[in-house]
Amino acid sequence: VADDDPTGAATLIAALKRWGFDVDCATDGDAAWRMLAAADGPTLAILDWMMPGLDGPEVCRRVRADVSRPPTYVILLTARAERADIVAGLDAGADDYLVKPFDPEELRARVHVGRRLLESLSREIQLSGLLPICSYCKRVRGDDNYWEQVEHYIAQHSKAVFSHGICPQCYEKAIAETER
Amino acid sequence: VDSVLVGHVRSVGYPTLPVFDAEALRRRAYGDSAVMGAIIDLFLTHAPDLLDAIELSIADSNATALRATAHTMKGAAANLGAARVADAAATLERIGLDGRFDTAIAAWQRLVDDVNDLFERLRAFRAASLEGPSTCAR
């Protein structure tokens, strides 16, 4: 959470903790960016627009420009309610935009959209990352360090569904073994 | 002259705006009286500094500072359910945006009056409805 208004930040932090989040707070845009740029920085951020130092949209731009960082969901929460502001905020890289004062249930629902998207992206990244595979049996080492069948791993980490068949090479081999 | 200026710095809906909507704050705090008390105390502590900063920006005719400080006051008041103060701060924010200070003093006086009314309501509400002593006083 980044907000230079302590009352707004306190309201937001109390709500987020109620919803089960660990919350860090910055009171200006520079501190918010330092927090986000850290190696284990947050991946879900709620930023005010007008803050001392970097403003909310500039923090959004920096988040989007850093291609090495993990997927990050950013909500701009601001008292700027003009349509042009909303467009500018989203164009700067915000994923969502809410006008102060926030409605708690609407914010809760939107924050959970962010969490859902991040969890989904995180699973895809696991599938595209480095995956140790045994050169002999072709099992792969999963997230819990156990070796498992590759199809089991892929089924767990994607929406792929396996249908079982036999390829021409294995078919020839199976027939030859049967005849022997 | 003052009454003419005051007329310019009050929005059409001003008379119907609540000084303090306790239910709006209660909803945002999920009915948690400790959270409500903490938010009210934070406002009572920080609003005077914000008022000082707004006054200074008017004295310096610093439009950028006026816009930023009035904007922060607007957001803090809206979060609290204090629509009149939020409206008064929005007027000053617009003055900062336009850079035209001819109605700034009247708008500033209106904000001070509305903040004083709000402080009274907040202290009364805190004493009557919330547990624990207020952690600040002015």
**Largest sheet entry of chain B:** none
Number of strands of chain B: 0
- Most extensive interface: pair and counts? A-B, 19 and 23 residues
Poorly predicted runs of 5 or more residues of chain A: none
Strand content of chain A: 5-15%
Shape of chain B: elongated
The overall strand count of chain A is: 5
Mean pLDDT of chain B: 88
Order of SSEs of chain A, N→C? HHEHEHEHEEHH
Computed structural class of chain B = mainly alpha
What kind of sheet is the major sheet of chain A?
3 strands, parallel
Radius of gyration of chain B (CA) equals 15 Å
List the helices and strands and how they pair.
The complex is a heterodimer of chains A (180) and B (138).
Chain A: H1 6-18, H2 29-37, E1 44-47, H3 56-65, E2 73-78, H4 83-91, E3 96-99, H5 104-128, E4 140-141, E5 147-148, H6 150-157, H7 168-179
Parallel strand pairs in A: 1-2, 2-3
Antiparallel strand pairs in A: 4-5
Helix pairs in contact in A: 2-3
Chain B: H1 2-8, H2 22-28, H3 33-59, H4 63-80, H5 83-98, H6 104-129
Characterization of this structure:
The complex is a heterodimer of chains A (about 180) and B (about 140). Helix content of chain A is about 50%, strand content about 10%. Chain A is mainly alpha-helical and about 180 residues long. In chain A, the strands form two sheets. A three-stranded parallel sheet of chain A has the order 1-2-3, sandwiched between helices. In chain A, helix 2 (about 30-35) packs parallel to helix 3 (about 55-65). The model of chain A has no long low-confidence stretch (mean pLDDT about 90). Chain B has helices at about 1-10, 20-30, 35-60, 65-80, 85-100, 105-130. The longest helix of chain B has 27 residues, at about 35-60. The radius of gyration of chain B is 15 Å and the shape is elongated. The termini of chain B are far apart. Residues about 1-10 and about 135-138 of chain B have low confidence and may be disordered. The interface between A and B is medium-sized, with 19 and 23 residues.
